[in-house]
Structure formats: C-alpha cells, structure tokens
Amino acid sequence: MFDTLSLNARAAILSLLILVVGLLAWEVSIPAQKVAGELTEYELLTGGGAQKAGVPPPSAIAVKAWEELSNPFYDAGPNDKGIGIQIAYSIYRVLAGYAMAAAIAIPLGFLIGMSPVAYKAFNPFIQVLRPISPLAWMPLALFIIQDSEASAIFVIFICSIWPMLINTAFGVAGVREDWVNVARTHELGALQTAFRVILPAAAPTIVTGMRISIGIAWLVIVAAEMLVGGTGIGYYVWNEWNNLDLTSVIFSILMIGVVGMLLDLAFGRLQRAVAFAE
Amino acid sequence: MPSPYLSIENLTQRYPDGQGGEMTVFENASFGVEKGEFVVILGHSGCGKSTIMNILAGLAAPTSGVVKMDGFAVSGPSLDRGVVFQNYSLLPWLSALRNVTFGVAARHRDWTKAQVIEESRKYLAMVGLEGDTIHRKPSQLSGGMRQRVSIARAFANHPKLLLLDEPFGALDALTRGTIQDELLKIWSGTEQTVFMITHDIDEAILLADRILLMSNGPFARVAESVEITIPRPRNRTDIVEHPNYYPIRNHLVQFLGQRSREMAGTPQDGTGPTRPETVRIDKTAEPEPEPAARLRAVND
Known about the structure:
The structure holds two protein chains of two kinds.
Chain A: H1 7-29, H2 41-45, H3 58-70, H4 83-114, H5 116-129, H6 138-145, H7 148-173, H8 177-185, H9 190-228, H10 233-242, H11 246-274
Helix pairs in contact in A: 3-11, 4-5, 4-7, 4-9, 4-10, 5-7, 6-7, 7-9, 8-9, 9-10, 9-11, 10-11
Chain B: E1 6-16, E2 22-33, E3 38-42, H1 49-57, E4 64-69, E5 72-73, E6 81-84, H2 96-107, H3 113-126, H4 143-156, E7 161-165, H5 173-188, E8 193-198, H6 201-207, E9 210-214, E10 222-227, H7 236-239, H8 245-262, E11 277-280, H9 289-299
Parallel strand pairs in B: 3-8, 3-9, 6-7, 7-8, 10-11
Antiparallel strand pairs in B: 1-2, 1-4, 4-5, 9-10
Helix pairs in contact in B: 2-3, 2-4, 3-4, 4-5
C-alpha cells in the first residue's frame, strides 16, 4: 500500500514517523525525578529532595510552547516579555541591518560587475573583509557607535553585505553579451539597459546572494543579542539559561529554527519568481 | 552614378595575431545595397561575414573604412538597423509577446501600452504565432518558434535595414523551409531592405535579389555580386524548374568550392577594383524556344 502513495505522501509519512520515534526516545530517556517519600533520611538532609535541573522531556516543552504561544505579546517588565515580542525585536534588527546592506551591496555590486577594472580593484578588499567573523566587529562597533542596539544592527549589516555584493557583481559580470546587444540595437540608454536587461538577467544570482545573506544574518543575530542583551530572541535564550530554565531554552531554540526557515522560504519564493530557463 | 542606399566603402578589419603581428580578416571590402533590396552574403566560416554584420549593426567598429546609410556615416547601434542573430536574441525571462513589445516600445516611446501590445500581436500573427503560444517563455518554444519571434520583433520595428545573421542556421531543414517561406511572405509586403548572412546556397537563391560572394580569409574580399535572375514571387518547388536556377547554383558552388580558396591569402595590390564584379546569368535571354516555354509555366 505504501508503494501506491505519491512521493510526497510517502515522505510525509516517513517524516512523521521519525518525529514520533525521536520524541518518544527523548521522552523515555529522561530519568524521572525521585519522589521525596522514597528518599532516605540522609538524602533528605543533604538536599536530595530539591528539584534537579535536567534536560526536560518533550512533553514539558510542548506545555511550555502552548503557554508561550497562546500569549506571545505580553510585556511584564524588562526580563519578562512574550516570545512574540522577543522575536519581533530580532526580526526588526535583522531586517534593518539587512536592508542597509542590500541598499549598498546591490548598487555597488552592479558597478563592480559592470567594470572589469572595478572588479579587480575591489576584489582584494572583499576577500579580506569577507571571512571576518561578524562578531569580531562588535567591540569596534560598540566603541564607535556607542549604542548597543545600533551595534547589533551594524553587525547584521556587515555580515549580510558580502554574499549580496559578491553575487551581484558576479551575476552582472556574467550577463550574456547577446542580451546587452539586444538592448544596444534597441537604443536603450544606460539606465534602461541596467533595469530592463542586466537586472533581470542577473536577478537569479543576486537573489541567491540575498538568500544566503538572510540566512547568515539570522544566525548572527542570536549571537549578537547574547552579547548586547536587553531584548531579542538571542538575549531570551541567554536569559533563560541564566534562569536555568532549560524548557524555555529548548523552546526558543525551536522558535529560532522556525523563523529562520520562514525567512529562507520567503527568499526561496522570490528566487523562483525571478528564475528563467535559457 | 548615384551612391546606393547602403554603401560600404573600403571596409578593413585586422586583429592582432597573438604573435605581435596583425591578421587581416578582410581588406577594402566595398559594396552597395539598394533600398528594398534583399542581399545575401555567402562565404565560408572565418571570412569575416559576421564581422561585417556586426559593423553594419554598429556593434563593432572596423579597423578602417566607412558604412553610409542614406548618405550618412553610421556609428553605433541604432533602431534603424534591426538585427536577428542566430541565437540568444530573445530575452529568456520575457514571454514571446513581451519580447516583441520590448522592441515596439523602444521604437514608439510615445505609444500607449495597448497600442504596443496590439502592434506586437499583429506581427506575431504574421509569423504564425497566436493564442496561448505568445505567452510562453522562449525556453518553452521550439527553435523555429523562437526565430519567428525574433523575426516578428525585427519587422515590427520597421528598421531601414534588417540584418539577418544566419537566422536559420540552428534549425532543422523542414522548419527552415517553412520559416524561409514566411520570411519571403512578410518581406514581399514591406519593401524592407534586408542584408543576410548564410551558408546555405539554396536558401540564398530562394531569398536573394543579389548574392555577394566572399573569398576565404585571410585577406578575404567581396569578390562577386551575382544577380538572381529568377522572377518573384518565388516558391521553393517551382524555382528549381527555372532555367536559370542550376546555372546560378553551379556558379555559386564553383565559387565556394574552388575559387574562394584560390583567392585567399593574397593581399590586394591596391590597383585592382575594390568593387565586386557583377555576374549576371540569364539563360532565358537566349533565343531557345523551350526554356521560354518553361519560364511561362513558372509564371503562371
């Protein structure tokens, strides 16, 4: 019967199976806390009856998730905000830094791609700056900008600029000469050629760069927020670790994954929209 | 003698040969094309046909020499010189219709969107593309359909000169035949001046008013200008019956097979004629009763 189902249906069944088996294995592998009545007098005296911190079972996380997601936007002071608010802060920072990076990387990449001289001249700088861990910029950013919020955004900016810059330059440089000639024989001006021929021709490569960038930005924001503190999903994870609330830590890890997936999905859509077959 | 509509004067193209010297592809090529004329240039690969085409299109500059159209020297590409390339002249991210509107909108910048679309549909219909087909992307069209779209875009722009760079080179023989017929049909209704490159002798005879023959490179030149003395309208099955068909064809085969090679590699001494020699083969002019009767049958 399994063979007659479509590929997608079979894959879905298998996914579900892996999930259930994984969760069950996790659930049973967590040892139950001993009930106080079973302890010896000595154990009770040495504090053995107190709740031990341990990795929570999936059931506890599901309860926590339900609790958090049913009221995601509550705000009960600086250290007690709903998961929705924390994620919103993180997304805001990512999008702000990312938008600034795109506003610079795409036009600059365009110019670099159009001119072989610029391509060669900029290349060494890009090659040196690109492999720097974005967090290495944090102290410098904090010193110069003197604002932790803006520094976090700057770190996102600096980490998402490179893939977009490189891909835009690469895509623009690789536009087929014949297509540019079509623009030339139709007397299109430089700006028209850029927007109507080069941009659509390079768009698949550019959007691939944008997709890589948003992925990196979402990875980096968690680490950046752990450093700068205050708000955001990264701060939330760190704060719950300090509270030794591992249920919340695991729940927020899952949320980071879900949001990252949604961001990637959105750019995947965009990628399909600009794709073309030759 | 008044200068022709399109006049190519002493065109020379040299490239560095990679060893410090120069390689002359062609030298002092001079010829003219009259308004409304369909001229085909025939020659082996490497004789610089495509370079001449790119120079006429304004996409490349010659080492020396000038191209004059309507009395003015041309420089740079222009809407007045439409080009149909062998491949890749369609933008793959646009539908067939959008590829044509791209050209029409570039030509008529003051037109409304509706006017542009209507005009584009008209020309697509002329090459037999209608209905859903015109909303497909080039990758979803066959090679023949793609070239039809290119031709529609070129004709829709009413260029003063239409340049066809081996437009049917990548197509199979049957498709090529159909599109040649369509090209003839559209051309006969427009008085469009056409300059075309091809490798195919039969295609050249079917389409051309005049065939320019190029000798092989290096030092290629436009050696002969052969008039096609077969009346229009022509049709591929009837022209082979015409008494002039095989004499002309044999002349062309002779040239490409033998004489083009003999002429190669020798620089011109500068004293000889730079214009191609005009060749006119007309068997119908001879007073033989039989060919005249066959000619009449063709004209019917």
